[in-house]
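Page header: ASSEMBLY MODEL / two components / 598 residues total.
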Amino acid sequence: MFIIICLILNMVIMTSGQNPAEIKWSSILPDSISGWQKSEDKEFNGENLYAHIDGGAELYLSYGFRSLYNRTFTCPDQPDLIVEIFDMGSASNAFGVFAHTRESIDSTFGQGSQYIAGSLLFWKDHYFISLLGSPETDSSRQVLFKIARQIDDTIKHEGTLPEILTLLPSDGLIQSIVRYFHHYIWLNTYYYIADQNILHIDQNCEAMLAQYKQSEGGAALLLVIKYPAEEKAIKAERSFVDSYLPEAGKTKTIQVEDKSWVSYNRQQTILSIVFNSKSKSIANYLQIEVERKIKSTLILK
Amino acid sequence: MKKRFYTRRQFLHNTTAAAIGGALYLNLPVKANIQSGQKSRVILIRDADVLDSANKLNKNVLTGMVDQAVCALTDQTGIQSAWNQIIFPQDIVGIKTNSWTDLDTPQELESHLRMRVLECGVKENNVSINDRGLLSDKVFLNATALINTRPMRTHDWSGVGTLIKNYIMFVDKPWEYHDDSCADLASIWKLPLVRNKTRLNILVMLTPLFHGVGPHHYNAKYTWQYKGILAGFDPVAVDATGVRIIQAKRKEYFQEERPINPPPKHIFLADTRHHLGTADPNKIELIKIGWSEGIFI
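Prediction written out in full:
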């Protein structure tokens, strides 16, 4: 009986999401599948991720990367299948790194997935998963999906989306390309704003970028940042005004050189900024909606 | 020292920084401002026959493009005389290539460069082709001349993989240059192993990667047959020109402005902070040769 209880406890720990590091992917993934054979397993942490992802490790480190499990499958006359499971430490970070390049809404796998010509990406709980078989064949794609389903089924728990996403006004929102991050590098994802960290974004902040359709063409950009303390939000607001909107006085909605409107607003620890709005009314609408949502949620509590 | 910052609004004014930032970051059309002084010459040469539909490379076409580019760069009509302007018999020549698995410098290009170097009278044991092992390569350690070549591609952290970035293998701790999206890569070009040694830069634009997803970044879906090479003496000018092509392709593909992410700050700073060359389109003499369909710039 003791052994059975231990086994049950172990299963719970392995799959509950409470102890993420305990999932033993090496024993869960198959050694062979539909003609592909496991060739090697590798594990990486923050110290040696550079050695594995040549030049790209910083993207994952900027999202709180903890560890990576990698298994490669080989099959004669077929592409290698590379399975990579990133432990991002939190569901927010797993979502963030997944959404970093998301272009469409699809939840075939996990809590969101994207398949592009041999590359399957998805996230679930605090895991970001990449499966690659390139150049793709019908067989490699089928096997890739089988492995993905197994990983998806193994992760029993679903993670919670970042709370800051609840502040997004829904009208006009282009849902598929919402971005979430903690590193200022990603500030310019859609629209160049500045080459320095004028908004004081760091790992203790949560930032979100969203685009809104405009009938006049182009997209208005909504940036929302939650700071860990109000004093930091005030400092960031001052820095933004000094650097970007020095003419702002009592009015917080300004028309800039290219005739677009920029507006900013701060509610305690949350700073919201609208860029590239084709009209003052759109900028004001987005700010009012964000403020209303802040007041209607517990995000400031 | 407080770092100078550049915002979008600054780039909307008519300044030199605006010309550079407008082209690199905002994908703005190049304003034809009159410039005095010498311009950096960049050769863009394209040939529709350099690749077949399966991306198989035609070596003869490619090597002909390289020679034509060198002739145009040096204002020479003969191939040998053109190369003789760049490489001298007593030189020790390192050909810095790029071995990134999914999009490497074509071996046919490497071997052609080596052949041309030897034809300039350089001794066989005084020329070497290397990427990641160059710090233990005696030719590179003693080089008097460098030829720098690589394909252009987007990059998760520096925005784009460039000629400037290609020299990161000259340092034993490349990650020390990763700060602020690799902002100060151009400082590597001031190191003794590198400084003032580069005789030719060739940015391969045969099938550039204009977007990346996932940890391995590469996906053939985000490449296209541009069938070109860019060549120049000024790596910043060549890279900046390559970026304009990548930006234009992204706009065409995404059907909207989709800036390179993160912005290629290291090119901007290679000009404005490190003065390695110019990224200002108004200071670049762009000579276009060959196939013009889909040229973008």
